[in-house]
Amino acid sequence: DRAIGIVGVARDITQKEKAEATLREKSRQMGQLLTSARHLTASLDVKEVLIRIAVEARTILNAYEASIYLIEADGLTLTPMVAIDPPHEEILLATPLDVRHSLTGQAVITRRGVICNDTTTSDINYHVPGTPYVEDERVLAVPLIVDDEVLGALCLNRTGPIFRDEDLALAETFAIYAAIALQNARLYRALESEIETRCRTQEALQQSERLYRSLFEQASDAILLETVDRRIIDANQKACNLLGYTHEELLSLSVSDIVPPESQELVDEAMQTQPGEQPAPLIEGYDVHKDGTLIPVETSISWVDNDEQNLILAIVRDITERKLTEEALRRRTEQLEALRRIRLEMTNQLDPSALLRLIVSYAVKLLDKEIGGLYLYRPERDLLEWALYVGHMRAPIGTTLCRGEGLAGQVWEYGRPIAVNDYHRWEGRVSKMLRYSPPSVVGAPVRWGDEFLGVITVSDENPGAFSQYDAELLSLFAAQAAVAIKNARLFEETQQQSRRLSQALIVSEALHHALDIDEVLEQVTRGAASLGFARAAINIREPDGSTARVRATHGLSEEERQILTKAPLRWADFETLMQERFLVSRSYLIRQDEVDWDQLFDGATIPARTENRGPGYWAPYDALMVPLWGSQGQIIGLLSVDEPLGGLLPGLGVIQTLETFANQAALAIENARLYREARREIAERRRAEDALRESEEKYRTLVEGAAQPILTLSCDGVLLYVNSVAARILGIPPEEIIGRSISEVRPGSQTASAVKILQRIAASGESQTFEYEVTVDGQIMWFQAHGHPLRNNEGEIVAILVIAMDISEQRRLEERLRQAEKMEAIGRLAGGVAHEFNNLLIVINGYSEFLLDALPQDSSMRQEAREIQRAGEQAAALTRQLLAFSRRQMLRLRTLNLNDVVKGLTQILGHVVGEDVTLSLSLAPDLGSVRADPGQIEQVIITLATNARDAMLAGGVLSIRTENVTADTRSDRAGTGIEAGHYILLSVGDTGHGIPDEVREHLFEPFFTTKEVGQGTGLGLASVYGIVRQLGGTIQVESRLGEGSVFQIYLPRTDIVDDLDMSTRHKRANTQTILVVEDDGAVRRLTARMLDALGYQVLDAPGASAALDLLRDHEIDLVLTDIVMPETSGQVFVDRLRRLCPNVDVIYMSGYSEEALKHHGLLTPGIHLIQKPFNQGQLADIVSRVLGQNKDSPAAG
To answer: What pTM did the predictor assign?
Structure first.
């Protein structure tokens, strides 16, 4: 058979292949799961199991990262436990997840696996904060659940292939095995932990027993275990050592065997607490040692709960050291208190020698020792000298140490306390003190500020006796001792100074009472020796001056006195010697090796003395020579001293006292020489005494007849004498005053101040002048008193003489002068301001007048122009008030009767004061006349009436009174600033609220007002004051609060009668030429325009030079000029004008009044005045009047 073809049958096995592949894959996965399960259960360590779970899961599901989270007890937190191969493992393991807000938490909440293949669009937060985002990252999370308990979650991350449902199923299956393995590991760990705990508990119990026994035996305190019946059943070794028993001996004792009865009571009381209660407090008492010694102890008792019975645990602490410390502290406290008491006692001891011994005794007592001493610093030798000691130390007094030598020298060197506890082996020991110094010695510096006084030491026979505390305590004591020594030395110096002064007073007293020169010189030598010298002598120069002889001695032996009184001192040799010696103050210190005394005292042989004792000490023949100076500046003798007690050089105070004695001796010698002459003068002195008695009688007569009060008082203010004037002022008869205190007679602060001044006079011995206020008959009077000390024959102040002078009038005048000067200064200021305003007002008022003339009657601008003119006129009125205050206002004086002016104002005053105020007039019928401007007087009255009305808002009485008055030196008005003469008094009073003193002080000052803003200019009373003063009068104010005020105006009375024949005004054609001289351009142009409008020919010049040029070139009929100009004054200009054109009249343009210009000599014949500000009518009036007078005069023709 031949094959003819091939038949093929094909079957599609794709699905089969896929199924087989799937089957193989599942088989593989199951194999992996089983293998992984074996791996997971191969370990029972929880950490190892977690790591294996993560590793196996990452392998099975092909992930690059695997992490495991365990849920916390709160059920809300997932804690990362393991992370395999994450890029940021540390961050991931440190960041717990919130179950509610994470993909892994979602798996825990739903108990199912969760897949997120697109993390960019997922609503669930899968990202751990702090880790970077991974592109195309896929996340799968499955819960770990065992027995329905969620243990945590497994989280897998990979990139590339997405997680499919098969992957999720595989992961969930793996999670079951993983959860079982984890739970097994955890159970095993719990079992293992319990077994370990039991083992540890058993071991701890054994360890606790060992530790208890170790603590019991090794405790630093004694421990006793006792039964309730107080038998000792156990004790540690410390208890055996403390009480001196063996362990077996202690267990055979009861508590009563080791605790004395007095401490047993405290123990029994502590045992009252029951088991379980708070431990008993610590008991401080004693235990008994086996040898019977009492041991101070502190015991703590507590109950021990035993299974069989309650036991008592007693912990006993040996407090012997603490007791010793407390005792040391108590001792130190007592030492500090003793130090305080010692300081007080030392400062009360002012005798230096006794104080030094007291200091050493207290230092020894303070440190509880028996030996002590004191080194004193000798600055003149720069050495420490052993001055005194207490105890049995026998170092020779006077032994010296240099700085740094021995213990005291080193204390001096280093300035701090030093304690040496084995002096004989100390490297700083000195041989001269070695045999005297005990083994232990402590020293401290005695220092007052920067001044070193010495070293105080305390010693002890026992080595090691002093601690650093002892050294510091001694240092504190030394500081207080330094203060006491300094005080005592200061007191001694003061006492010595007092003794020196007493001796000086004794010698001075001898000079006053003794005429025998030898007696006085003996007193001087005794006084000189009393200053601390063994010998003293006085040599007096003979009349020829070549020699001097000893006239008085003290302390010399008879042999020495005989030699010196017979041998003359060669004065020429002595003067040569003095020129070569060092001068101490005004005295000479002569050393023994610098002079041959046998040669100096001619023919004398001076007995030998001991040798010099060392530097800084007085040598045997050293002498201090003090010259006796005569009244003519010559030396008349010598006071010499030698051998000072103690051998030290004398201080400056002693030398100065010696010089005082020498001066007194010189005075006594000269007085003796004058004695004979004095006897001849005795008769004259008696005659002088008679004259003195006569003078005293005259003095008494003068004092009693004096117009001034004269008193004599004791230094404490007791009245010893008063003359009749003083008695009258005091208001008490003289016989009742004497012996009483001035403070009793005239109590008050003034008297207290005066008594203090008297006391100062008594203390200083110098006269003083003071002022004193006295009220006599209700009137205050001021006296200027001069106090002078009165002394007795001894020069002591025994009383104070007081002579007083009444200065009441002077004080009132001074007060008025100060007020007048103040008002004058304010007036000058106000006048200056008004003068400056005048130039401005001339321009304002003048051009407003031109403006009104130029405007048609129906012009709408006329009202504005009138307002400008009205404001200018008001400003001019204000300026006139200022000028009135400054007394520079132009016044038109007439002879007036003030009654007529007051009567003429009656109706106006009624409108001014209103219906609530009653007007009362009291006008003198025979009233004299005054020279005044009627308008100004009316202004004064209306101003005062207006102010009175404002003070009586509720109504009252306004009284106006006129009176003729005369003032002289005897009248009541003599002290009010009114000159003697005849006056007309105009008085305006009210019953208002009165004026306070602080307002009265400023009442007449311009712009001062008490009214509200906008209701007063403050110029009313200032103008009144100016008008009255310009009229030569005076204004005074009397006021009492709540009662009212009275203004009193005194105007000079006049007998002048006015000439009633008024000259007629000449009307002439205005063809004259007028020159206007004014530096203010606006005023100059306005004045020229006014004159031009009046038809005059006008030339103007800005100053004197230009005006004089015009006068030379033109014929001028009249000159109008300002007074104050920059180039030169108006007066100088007019003087030059008179020399150039003597017949030309001049009109001054000024804000000053005519009286002011006359006072300064500016208004002479041919010179007139127009006061600024002026208008065209006023200018036309004065120009036509002056030119008319000129035409009518003979010179005009």
So the answer is: 0.33
